[in-house]
Amino acid sequence: MQETGMHRIKIQFPGGTILEFRNAQFIPAFYFIPECFLRKCGSELCSIPRDFNELMINEEALKLVQSDLFVLCIVDCYAYMAWPYLCPKIPYMEIFSGDSPAWRIAHSAATWIDELTRLKLLPTFADLFSKPKDDLYFGFVPEETVSLYMSKIVPSAVARHNLQPILDAEKEYRCFEDFDYRDSNQKIDFYRKWYHTRSKKAEFSLEGYKEHLMEVYDDDGWEVPDPVSDFEDEVVENVDVQRFMSTLSEKDRNILQLRQDGYTLQEIADKLEYKTHSAVLKRINKIGRQYEKYSGLSFGFQRMT
Fold first, then answer.
1. How far is CA 231 from the centre of its chain?
2. Residue 217 lies inside a defined structural domain of this protein
3. Which residues make beta-bridge pairs with 9?
4. Using an 8 Å Cβ cutoff, are 231 and 239 in contact?
5. Which of 5, 155, 226, 243 is such that its CA lies 20 to 30 A from the CA of 59?
6. With b meaning 16 or more CB within 10 Å and e meaning fewer, what string describes 162-183?
7. What's the pTM?
8. What is the dihedral sign for C-alpha 69, 70, 71, 77?
9. pLDDT of 284-304, one tens digit each?
């Protein structure tokens, strides 16, 4: 093995294969995940050898460690491990929408791993590699120990990075969709997209997500709840849907169906030959107002002119 730069390690196997081990720094963090969490990540990740020596000569296991699946297991597990101590009065992280600062801080796995390492509660990859070779089997850390460590490092990291003002501001200015114990289509949609597309992108920034929403909604109130998603699911699931759909033009029916099939506004615009995605959004808003009048229900479309 040779180190080629920060967190860039190359390993040569007996057959001559050279592997750049790009996720080596996460191995100690992986061994710290309690069994109850890891089991939920699937049998593939559970198959990674817990003997460090065995791992370092297992080419298939090392390739798995290099995968996005491995990194995202770290991101998700550490978010759930940190959450009880990041927002102790809120039992379920899922009640937050994905653009919530608290949700994003929880998913900043590097913050928690760095703090565990800084306080000498977690070894580094270099520590493991330099240890005696007969002392490198890692059984599962008891849940009580994990909880004890996380209860110490989360407040420590929050204080060190001055994150508390962000969490306090979120509490003070929380909107309905950001904090509610009931299910919402916005939250369901976000989590579907997160788990469907996460193999392509492990983490994303708050600013990047904000810019995306501003682009989609033409700078029109990116932070307000989006009634479009509520409306789309309601139309499809409502027992009276066929009667309402029969009142729409073929193009409007196509728009709703394409949105239900997961197409973006721009993709719909391209398919149906609209000039811009905003034209599609305006059509959906118009359909929404029609449905509000038809059903007697309110989805907030009167606010989106």
1. 24
2. no
3. 3, 21
4. no
5. 5
6. ebeebeeebeeeeeebbbeeee
7. 0.56
8. positive
9. 888 888 877 776 666 555 544
Q: Helix, strand, coil: what percent of the chain each, to 5?
A: 60, 5, 35
**Domain of 261, in residue numbers:** 227-303
**Which pLDDT band, with edges at 50, 70 and 90, does 218 fall under?**
very low
Are 176 and 231 contained in the same domain?
no
Please, what is the end-to-end C-alpha distance for the chain in angstroms? 62
Q: Helices marked H in 198-263 — which ranges? A: 206-216, 227-237, 241-245, 250-260
Amino acid at 5: G
Q: What DSSP designation does 135 have?
A: S
Model confidence at 227: pLDDT above 50: no
Q: What are 228's two structure tokens?
A: 């479009």
Q: What secondary structure does DSSP assign to 86-132, as a single string? A: HSTT---GGGS-TT-HHHHHHT-HHHHHHHHHHTTSS--HHHHHHS-
Q: Residue written as tokens 């708050």?
A: 206
